[in-house]
Design goal:
The protein is of the alpha+beta class. The protein has a single domain, classed as Cyclic Phosphodiesterase, Chain: A (Alpha-Beta Complex), CATH 3.90.1140. It contains four helices and eight strands, in the order βαββαββαβαββ. Strands 1, 2, 3, 4, 5, 6, 7 and 8 form an eight-stranded antiparallel beta sheet that branches. The two termini are 25 Å apart.
Amino acid sequence: MRLFVEAVLDPLALDACWSAGRTLAADPSFPERRIRWVAREASHLTLRFLGEVEDDRAPEIAESLSALEGSGGFELQFDRVGRFGGRRPRVIWIGFAGDAGLERLSALRSELDSALETMGIEPDAAAFRPHLTLGRVRRQASPDDLAAIRAAVDRAEPLRQRAAVGQVALVHSTLLTDGPRYRRLARIDL
């Protein structure tokens, strides 16, 4: 089964992020048809992607989340719309301000890595780049489409929404032709 750990964001913050994506899409110069938007109900903040894991390990992984229980909730400040991929954007996302909330999120990730390491799951070697994905650029995007996407993202208004983080969840991800489906297997309060 394909698993990840989510830092659960409050629904109003997710609504604000989804609205930021809709604002981009509404720009007449934006090639909206070249983006595969993340559905509102699928929006999430990945704390740690685990990938394919044997089904019988899921309860053990869920139990490891208890190491985070009671560590305390916090707030994140959404900051800006950005893109991964340089001249050929692949992902449009919303990032976070570099404040105490982001430091706490990074510390939570480290705590999670330590808990998972006791189970033999190695820490992720890639740098932690927390973001909320708004959409993915389709491969059919032309050079003109890519230029329009870059320009629209670069001029997007900053997002000044705060998001409460009070839980983490273990999530099962099923990839389907019309997009992924997520099911929370376990949830703990911070």
